[in-house]
């Protein structure tokens, strides 16, 4: 678990997902704020503040995951961001509120045929898988078994891009599932 290729690859992949997610939310902060409001978990006066703080936390986590020596802090913050989102999903799924915008942007939120993207247990599983990407950075607190070699850069890049590709493929499949569910 302490191999630097796994550590840097997982950190870079999670940073990409978080930063791209934050970018989508920033592009339409009004829609994200409306999605946060739709979860009906916060007083109306705190929804806008929370939405902005959440996006800033996503950006901070993603940036810290890319800074050498700060990856464990970024992973801990990413885990917190994912925990908040997953808890909100789980609460609303338990309430039976499935036809609200997930707030996660991208393909899932814009699934054709879905009124607002919709909530599903698959989003909880997806967030759980993303949380697993924090483990190499959190485990790095005990140090690496070996130093990073120059040739490892290709493996790190390949691992990160493969993981990001799998994430977006899973999101596309989830969007297709939501479309079929709403036919």
From TrEMBL:
Pathway: One-carbon metabolism; methylamine degradation. It is found in: Membrane. It comes from the Bacteria. The chain crosses the membrane at residues 6-23, 44-67, 73-91, 150-170. One of its GO terms (biological process) is methylamine metabolic process. GO terms for cellular component: membrane. Residues 6-136 form the Methylamine utilisation protein MauE domain. It holds the Pfam family MauE. Keywords: Membrane, Transmembrane, Transmembrane helix. This is Methylamine utilization protein MauE.
